[in-house]
């Protein structure tokens, strides 16, 4: 066996051992108060998440999504609620959206992506998205990755639309 192949095999075996050890560790669960279901007059709905969305078949269903989570990402600084959470897109619709190509990031529908935008072209894309009428507060997100065989960057052919829930304006406006 070639020296390089032996090193790769040793590294893979080490990674497999690390994964097995992680599987044996007990997960710690942190309980968080549900801010929206804490009122006394809402006792009948304490076990139901009020946030609704569409499942993969396009049928209206429920999924767990805590809209208070974004404000808990303290490293983003003070954020402001955008108050626009109603953008459901029709199947087959063709839209022109600002596209964020993020290396190593796969955004799944219903997931939260804390994103700090500092480059001027991305800031401009977010500003355009905030002022749109047809699909307000919506951007596209796709994953880009390094193709080691060709020494180039490739982009995924499938992405996700993301809705801007909170924003931070570092200009003080």
What is this entry, summarized?
By secondary structure, this protein is an alpha+beta fold. The protein has helices at residues 3-24, 120-131; strands at 52-54, 60-62, 80-81, 99-103, 138-147, 152-155, 160-163, 166-167.
Q: How is the topology of this model organized?
A:
Layout: H1 3-24, E1 52-54, E2 60-62, E3 80-81, E4 99-103, H2 120-131, E5 138-147, E6 152-155, E7 160-163, E8 166-167
Parallel strand pairs: 4-5
Antiparallel strand pairs: 1-2, 3-8, 5-6, 5-7
Put simply, the count of helices is 2
Distance between the termini: 63 Å
Q: Which band does the percent of strand residues land in?
A: 15-25%
What profile does the largest beta sheet have?
A: 4 strands, mixed
Radius of gyration: 21 Å
User: How many strand units?
Assistant: 8
* Protein structure class: alpha+beta
Determine the mean pLDDT: 69
Relative helix content: 10-25%
Gross morphology is extended
SSE pattern:
HEEEEHEEEE
Poorly predicted runs are 34-67
Folded structure, characterized:
The chain has 173 residues and is an alpha+beta fold. Helices cover 20% and strands 19% of the residues. It is built from two helices and eight strands. A hairpin with a 5-residue loop joins strand 1 and strand 2. The protein starts with a helix and ends in a 6-residue tail after the last strand. About 20% of the residues have low confidence.
